[in-house]
TrEMBL record, chains A, B:
Residues 31-381 form the Aminoacyl-transfer RNA synthetases class-II family profile domain. This is Histidine--tRNA ligase. Its EC number is 6.1.1.21. It comes from Salinirubrum litoreum. The lineage of its organism: Archaea, Methanobacteriati, Methanobacteriota, Stenosarchaea group, Halobacteria. SUPFAM superfamilies: Class II aaRS ABD-related (SSF52954), Class II aaRS and biotin synthetases (SSF55681). Keywords: Aminoacyl-tRNA synthetase, ATP-binding, Cytoplasm, Ligase, Nucleotide-binding, Protein biosynthesis.
Length: 433, 433
């Protein structure tokens, strides 16, 4: 007997139907904002990830050589792929480009609750606008997706920050700071104790007292004080940009979901402006549910024209944890409109009825295993059939079928020639006296 | 600049929307038959494929060692995975099990028209019924999917055969035949000339004259003659089974799409009963579009209880070729219900209208790039917006917005407080005098 690989999951129909409903909700939300679906390959050249993130990234990837000797990688995220696609057709694509897609990604990493080696995300991105409206639209899409899933402002918050505030502040210290390392330290700060955090900041080039001051400044969340401290145009512009994004988010109706949180940094190196992470307001789901932000330099670094970009990628495993915690995860059950139960040689009539009911969009099962009345009824119950239509030889002799409401157990007869007739979805009630 | 790998494809929004429509149609057809969606991993242990198909299969696979030293493979087909999943939960799953899913698969093979290294299929399977109704339901689903795509009986045919007729006939010759090799020869027969075909049959153990006789028997398609020739219960039972499947297909309303074709064999080894391939009736798409059949032994060979099974897997690349040939491939274009065009500082009103229109399911874009009237109108045209709602400072001073029908170019004004009002999808016509 074979088993699935560690960190990979088999989804059986019950769980899958809940996942499908969730994915459909997130995608439908994106579609209504005019994000257009794209399709992308599972494999890319490993070099693309090495160029972007350095040789050490390969350790976390499913990287290998294909039969043609190419170094290839199972895509660990979508952003490099969409950047590549934007560059490849930048002349033809009218801006802003608004794309979305849902698919699995793969990382060879430690398996934890809500974190797998194969994981599904819906990626949503805007290319070609540096305006705060674009950042705010990403926040608005994400907030709408959450509320469309049944979550409320009591369930989640977006902690919003700005990479240029962090970078600009670090620059303002009289120190030779490795900004990348320092920002990675900020990204870790919530998960480690203060001493350890400050030590990481000193590793990145700050003195201990500078590290303390930096930490205090971020914690204060007093944007005016930050501008005064830095005294640079860079920090001033970043603060203005962050305030503008939040102002547009207000107009877009989603400001209430956003919290200013300068200690939010996002781990990935390519972010340049506003960044945000979604958290469970109760803290029960302890890690960030998902995150996103602005990455204005990536397209150019991939050989394209300078193209500002901003995006978000809800991951479906952490989203499931949050929905379950909040009690809004869809029921993991099958649903079936009709089961056509045949007794004796009545298959042709049952087939005709099944065909007509399917044509109006109903989910209809019928016997394909030559089973007894009881076995068929048990199966119909198991698939949660709402209505069972019994097509028996005796009923047919009277030109009738029996219509049974499975919730109440009530049943009645209907004229076979008038079933379903011109009804899209006939039920017991349509024929009961 | 990076490129995608050979045999892998990037799908941009226009083509993707046509693909999505096609996939949705095939999936909706399966859902209405009560096939339930499952989710499956992209990676499996390589050993599973070696056990099933022999060591040589590895040459065609994306097989590699992961960081933990496991021999793993990018799944080249779904059947072994679903067989594994059935075995893992065989006690809990009530039979018949009816599953479906759409996803990519990967094979390292020669890239041709309609054949890629990454290719998408919708797999549809029934486990737990040996009855002809199950085979016929698979044929009926497949035929309905085709007609739901707009294809007709003039466009495609299912060539139906039976593995046990082929195997039973071969057994009836006084020769030591390698059935697997002989059936592979039959599978190739349409693509090679007769001499070469007969030579392959002699390689498999028939004499030249036996090979000629075998070929004549298959070509005759006279099932009674086959039964007489073989004189075995096996061939008699197989012929009866094939006839029963076609009889049920008649009751299921899809017999017209089925042609008896004993020279159809399917390449894969695991088939045991009815097999079929879908062909373009015009022959313009020269290879089989897709195929399916019965594989009653696979679950047991995976360590499960004996479990009969039958399935089909439409591949979306060859299906696209057929739909394009038949002129029923969906238009590769974006569709947009509304573009909200802002002039001046009117974003808050535009955002309110956009939010209300999205809430009733419309696709609504608005400006996220701070662009001019002309640039916005050009963009709205590029995304095929049906209606443009112009929210201008001047109009707002009169408590109005302008509603423009993009097809006719006509425009009128509407009271801003009554737009959209209680209308789900207001158009120019709702406000024109």
């Amino acid at each position: 007997m074979y088993d699935h690989l560690k960190g990979f999951r088999d989804f059986y129909p019950g769980e899958m139907s809940a996942r499908r409903e969730t994915i459909d909700t997130v995608e439908a939300t994106a579609e209504r904002y005019g994000f257009r679906e794209i399709g992308t390959p599972a494999l890319e050249r490993t070099q693309m990830y090495v160029d972007k993130s350095g040789e050490e990234i390969v350790e976390e990837l499913y990287a290998f050589q294909d039969k043609g000797g190419r170094d290839v990688t199972l895509t660990p995220e979508l952003t490099p792929t969409v950047a590549r696609m934007v560059v490849a057709k930048s002349q033809e694509l009218s801006k802003p480009i608004k794309w979305m897609s849902t698919r699995p990604f793969w990382r060879y990493e430690q398996v934890q609750q809500g974190r797998f080696r194969e994981f599904y995300q819906t990626n949503v991105d805007i290319f070609g606008s540096a305006e705060p409206e674009a950042d705010a639209e990403i926040l608005a899409f994400a907030a709408d997706a959450m509320t469309n899933l049944g979550l409320t402002a009591d369930d989640f918050e977006f902690r919003v920050s700005h990479r240029d505030i962090l970078g600009g502040l670090l620059e303002a210290f009289d120190a030779d700071v490795d900004t990348r390392d320092a920002i990675r330290a900020v990204d870790k700060s919530a998960k480690i104790d203060r001493e350890e955090y400050l030590a990481l900041l000193t590793d990145a080039g700050l003195t201990w007292s500078q590290a303390e001051q930096f930490d205090d400044l971020l914690k204060s969340e007093d944007l005016d004080a930050l501008v005064d401290f830095a005294g640079t145009e860079r920090v001033e512009a970043a603060v203005t940009n962050l305030q503008n994004v939040l102002a547009v988010a207000e107009e877009f109706g989603v400001r209430e979901y956003c919290t200013l949180s300068l200690e939010t940094a996002r781990g990935l190196d390519y972010y340049t402006g506003v960044v945000f992470e979604c958290f469970d307001s109760t803290g029960e789901v302890s890690r960030a549910v998902f995150g996103g932000g602005r990455y204005d330099d990536l397209i150019e670094s991939f050989g394209g024209q300078p193209t500002p970009a901003v995006g978000v990628a809800p991951g479906h495993a952490p989203l499931q944890l949050l929905c379950q915690r909040a009690g809004v995860w869809p029921e993991e059950a099958l649903s079936t409109d009709y089961y056509l139960l045949t007794v004796g040689d009545t298959r042709d009539v049952a087939a005709r009825i099944a065909r007509e009911l399917r044509a109006t969009g109903n989910v209809v099962e019928t016997d394909v295993a030559d089973r007894s009345f009881g076995a068929q009824m048990g199966y119909a119950d198991g698939i949660n059939a709402e209505t069972v239509v019994i097509v028996g030889e005796q009923d047919l002799a009277n030109d009738e079928v029996t219509v049974k409401d499975m919730a109440t157990g009530e049943q009645t007869t209907a004229p076979v020639d008038d079933f379903p007739g011109d009804r899209d979805a006939p039920t017991y009630d349509d024929f009961a006296e």
